[in-house]
Description:
By secondary structure, chain A is mainly α. Chain A has nine helices and no strands.
Amino acid sequence: MSALAALIRRDIRIALRVGGGALIGVLFFLTVTVLMPFAVGPDLALLSRLGPAILWLGALLASLLTLDRLFTADHEDGSLDLIVMSRTPLELACAAKALAHWLAAGLPLIIATPILGLLLNLDGTATLAVAATLLAGTPALTFTGMIGAALAVTLHRGGLLLAVLVLPLSIPVLIFGVAASQAAISGPLSFGTPFSILCALSLASLVIGPFAAAASLRHGLD
Amino acid sequence: MKLTETLTDLANPTRFLALTARILPWLAAMTAILLAIGLYQSAMAPDDYQQGATVKIMFIHVPNAWLSMFVWSVMSVAALGTLVWRHPLADVAAKAAAPIGAAFTFLALVTGSLWGRPMWGTYWEWDARLTSVLILFLMYLGLMALWRAVEDPSRAARAAAVLTLVGAINIPIIKFSVDWWNTLHQPASVIRMGGSTLDKAFLWPLLVMAIAFSLLFVTLHLAAMRNEILRRRVRNLQMMQASRVAFTSEAGAGPKEIGAA
């Protein structure tokens, strides 16, 4: 247990220090969100209608961008081999790494959401709804994305291949995340139904992600 | 017991090649005959009272859609074969199936949208089943990209196996999407509790076409597996050749040896 805690603490510390790159994700999130009004025009009514979708897309892309570093840095300096060989089960180690990644790169996105919601003319309820769905949904993005990151590191390929592999898996999360936010803002549906499916997706990926990532690390590294 | 023995026997690629060389012509002939019968029956099937002649798109669309899911299931079993049983032909089977599955999925999408235009008034609708089949198509393409991204086949095989198994979660979602979400696409009507809702005049051609398409898949898959085995042999020979050339040129007798080889 202490080994896992140490792993989480180490990963967060690395992600937050100079060269860590976790906070670049937030900057990217901000930039993508700012780009949207340029693309669709500064119509405030339209922006507030598209707001949840824009924020969700931005968060999805930002978390995808930072996932690339989940295993590659450890692979480059050799610590990934030590983690694979250590006595802690690899599945738990993967889960710990993903948790640390989410704390360092996912949580800041949610904290930034209210400010970005202001830019997109979202009112209090809408911002709260988007932040709540992101809080429930981004763990699913991290834990399914971890599978792609593990595949990419064993293949020595990153970037575009990772995006192609991970994005289809994240579509259900995007659907229910946006659906829940829209339901809270305007929709005829209740907020609870899509939101609980979103939570279910997160919980399922919490189980599947570490196992799949550990399997691909164990079979792929040599 | 018998099955495991047969599977172990087939682990020898040479034996597999010999066996499939004998089976393939028969399979191809049966596929051609069944396809001919199925197409004839579909052409002769009566027009629907509501849909008119466009109902005949169904005879192509439904088998393609079934196979798009079936092929991923075959690949999932092959992925288990790669990761769990380490069967040497499992990754060949998985790799050969991916482009075929992508083709069936693509055809299902195209015929579906051609059918949707006169029936629903639109080529595309963001309906649950259409969307999940589109995701399936994207995953087929991602899988093919993964196979192409890595040179070493066994390394690519294990990575692709993990991705295939993760992607298999999509299959039940596609199957039950029309029951879970009440959408534009009609719910299951052929295989369902309480018998088929399809009329006999449509059911028989559809079943023949489904069997014909399944045989088509088996034929194409076995042929593609043969090609993949041969491709790997060529690759191995080329690598041996390259290392021999490198070795002899180091020893100083390079050009002559290349000429001799």
